[in-house]
Amino acid sequence: MTLALFAAFAALLVGCSLMVILHRNPVASALFLVLAFCSLAGLYLLLHAEFVAMVQVIVYAGAIMVLFLFVIMYLNLRHDVEQGIAVAVRRGAGWILGILLLAETVAFFKGRWAEGPVSAPDLAPVAGNTQAIGQVLYTRYLFPFEITSVLLLVAMVGAVVIAKGRGPGLHPAAPAADAAADAKAAAPDHAGGEA
Amino acid sequence: MTEYVPVLLFLLVAIGFAGGTIGLSSLIVPRRRNAVKNSSYECGVEPVGDALQRFTVKFYLVAVLFILFDIEAVFLYPWAVTFRRLGLYGLIEMALFIVILFVGYVYLLRKRALEWD
Question: What is the reported pLDDT for A104?
């Protein structure tokens, strides 16, 4: 049963990952990546890592993919779809990343693998994986946890400064062409909101 | 593993229902297309250009804020299942966590970052 599920999720993961890099439409690639993340969450569930599986769906398939899609929306897609990025750039990047991946794979297979279940002996026996994480996260790792909120706060302020500019409610100084493009892009959304 | 069998069953039924309905309807549906059928009607608007255009960077703020509050919500899950064990200590630390993020929320409101101008 577990083996069949593993095979199914793994096959789905590999298939979706291939579609991510093979599909010509970047938005379709991003949606295949969502499916890949979901099948990865299934694999985590098979490993009894319920919390990681949940985070995989909520953070990766949800939030990170939203960011990916937004980044795709900011890029000038028409240029890439119609003319393609320069072939030399693609080939160069492909070679560099391929060699890096090969080096990582070699290093990975040379290392020692964990065999059998890995146990955390100093944990009090609790009902599940999520409880176990909560148990240590809110006691022993209290300080990193609280620091995380400061990190999120900094990211929030940074995003506001980037998107809104400095000063209370001021528009960032934008050239006229940029402002016109903004108005053009915002107009359909505005109309949709009213309808 | 047995506790996930209903979830798996649900998943299979959902995929089967969705795929079956679409597949069956594509098999038996009559295809007689004409210009009127393919046109926009009721509240439809004739599309102008395509969707491959650059969007305003204001959407970026929405995406990043969604991620940040999403991650905040993720931290609430393990806290919620160990809340009874942690007691008052846990309540205070989570209150501190949320207050720090609430400062960010107040900052957003004061900067009018959530308003679309």
Answer: 93
